[in-house]
């Protein structure tokens, strides 16, 4: 007898990992908008709206601004596959898992890839990139704005300067930062920048908002070889998302609905107010963690606001704590990747998940879980410190 | 003053183009299931369910059965990019737009691509492929089961025989047929087969269900070079969808919910009942069209059941008719692509859109639209013929 499966029935988690983040009820609702054909005039208007809102998000006038029809990693691949070809040289600043992925994708284009690596928990020093690139004709300098694998942020302006010195395109992976930390594509002259829907935008995973400026477009046009991936070949995609709306592939319609709504909510809140919300929740989380006796992987000046890496204290079992948080409190946080597995927790406060209430709940839940695990801490200290930090830093606008 | 955008507000269309098709309310509802992390035990169970249901859909035991995290074209690219590398030879049977796309993707791998083309409206004769491949060591024979650009279906068994003679992998694009026309991956020995969610499965676009058998897996493992696309590299993807659940990229969670629900509905209806529903609605549509004096592009023995190509009669303006159908009746049908632009209409009866009611409504609406455009027809003849066809062919199971 064939087993039959029932309808979905799982709990509503509080998503405090490095993505996906929890979603606003309005974003869920947007996915219920009736399905449309991908060339329906009503859908074309929705695409137009989405592009207008994406330009506001990235703070750019770039014509080439649209969501790649796949998850965040597809944004990295679109950037690498369209910019690089055999004979080119790229420098990738490697501060963790996701910049290693960028280097992997760059290498698959046939380009030579120079890597400048940092120790886990540290950003790559721009000077190191300068030295690694010395004497080379570098076409592209790639980096990850905020490394979700370590909680480390890079200084984009310092990297813009290095890229200028090298005469290279600056490619910025803003998957975990865009919408949660200051980033202005035009003012900071980022040639290519992309993000993902399920992080600070709090839409479902499935799209990678992408923008490229005139210098990048020129590089795409000057290619000698075809892009090896048809799916990610911007030459064609832009006929669909650009003026002509020529059919390329069927857009993931419901995901575009959700993204449009999520961007509408970013617009409603205002970019700067949203950045500030992420900054102050992060500050409260850090104050609470430190008051509980936990220490952070990254130094204060290198920390992302949106994903925080906390060291697992000695004697405490990483996976057990995460399992307890999920089973008892319905909270998801993440462990470390690769060499940091078992050594850190990664806590995301992104988009809709980034709220004072979630900071306080997590600290309270973590306190109980750690105390049960035998970790010595001063009861209530974490929540008290977070509350103090929040009251010293009133929100620009209450949500 | 910055313009602000409102919530989505567009009509619910009746989607009778070549996809996306209309969706069952239960599939909409599934997308409202709470967002989960991509490594959450509850999500891993949902992935397991989805794989079980996909194996039933494809009628296969293949271990390597999962949804590629992007739209249908990504299924073609995953097949080509993983199977082929420089030095290989592929033969692609080209009967229209989507098989041309397959040939394009095959060529981007660096493989030599031999094309065997048919005239528009005709399938490719297997004999033609045999001759084109003569004297070549062919690694892969690719074809599109049902060409949505022309409404033409290929005989898979005849192609299996050619592939056997050539010692080649048989790769079948079943984007517009899987779930709507007979297709059994194991019994028909299709080495690689893929489809898309927004056609006969009636889930939103955004995933490409994919399956590959042992011979294909062997080819993937024996590659000398890396797959040029990281995103579509099965080596890594299968660690996530296979037993280990190692993180590759974040799955499009809400889309997986929708696909699981859509597959659950396929399972509830039963594959054969579902195929039969598509056959009889197609037959009724054809009877109605012919009774109205319209003629079809493809000969009866070559027609797909799921997408029907009808010739635009002389004196009638293609785009005007489609616009009227949309504006007056809220019905979407499609025009022709490439050389067939302006010459045919493409009518999809797929998944949830494939119902007796939709056949009758379309015929009635088309009759009025064509009559207003000056086309001579016998009033009521289309609907009468369709009703007669339907009553001569009772449903196996009423919906």
Task: Give an overview in words.
Two copies of one chain form a homodimer. Chain A is an alpha/beta fold. Chain A folds into two domains: 244 residues, Aspartate Aminotransferase, domain 2; 123 residues, Aspartate Aminotransferase, domain 1. Helices cover 41% and strands 14% of the residues of chain A. The first copy, chain A, is built from 13 helices and 14 strands. In chain A, the strands form four sheets. A seven-stranded mixed β-sheet of chain A has the order 2-10-9-8-5-3-4, sandwiched between helices. The first copy, chain A, has a three-stranded antiparallel β-sheet with strand order 11-14-13, covered by helices on one side. In chain A, α4 links the parallel β3 and β4. In chain A, α12 packs antiparallel against α13. The longest helix of chain A has 21 residues. Chain A is globular and about 65 Å long. Chain A starts with 13 loop residues before the first strand and ends in a 7-residue tail after the last helix. At the A-B interface, α1, α2, α3, α4 and α9 of A face α1, α2, α3, α4 and α9 of B.
